[in-house]
Prior knowledge:
Elements: H1 2-17, E1 26-32, E2 39-46, E3 49-57, E4 64-68, E5 75-81, E6 86-92, E7 97-102, H2 107-110, E8 112-114, H3 117-145, H4 151-177
Parallel strand pairs: 1-7
Antiparallel strand pairs: 1-4, 2-3, 2-5, 5-6, 7-8
Helix pairs in contact: 3-4
Amino acid sequence: MKHSRSLLILITILLTAGVKAEPKGYKITVRLHNSNDTALLMAHYFGDKQYLDDTAFLSKQGTFVFSGSDPLTEGMYIIAGQNKSRYFDFFVSGPQQFEMECDPGNVTGTMKVKGSEENKVFNDYIMYLAGKQKEIEPLNKRARDLKPGSDSAVLLTSRIDAIDKEVKSYMAGLFYQVPEPSLH
Length: 184
């Protein structure tokens, strides 16, 4: 009898040890530097419109916490200031407990994400595109001032095409960086 009770306890421990209960609902923590906002809005996109999902108020810890007992619908969301100015977009996919931190004046250069691999990859993508945009803008400006077909125009066009090819290659590689969605 003692052995069967011990065996039953051992089996119960082994079965429950491998089960990691995923939290229900959502908890998205946002920290903004250099912001006077005391409230933030979170909305999701549906077509060309945005629909409000939640409001968070500035805590004593300096964070805004969006939370709810039911999970959010997966998709693209927006964080906006209390005056409805758009700060940044992010994805909700898989586990819905993560943190984002940035300066609204330079979201691209300051965004830090914890707990959401999809949003880390998305932010890296946005940073990469911003860098390539800075690289290509002066080339486009110079190309417009050159005579079409001139040696200089051909060289600039070649460099612009090379940058475009780099961006397309980077975008194609993103498919392999994003983790498989978790099954619920």
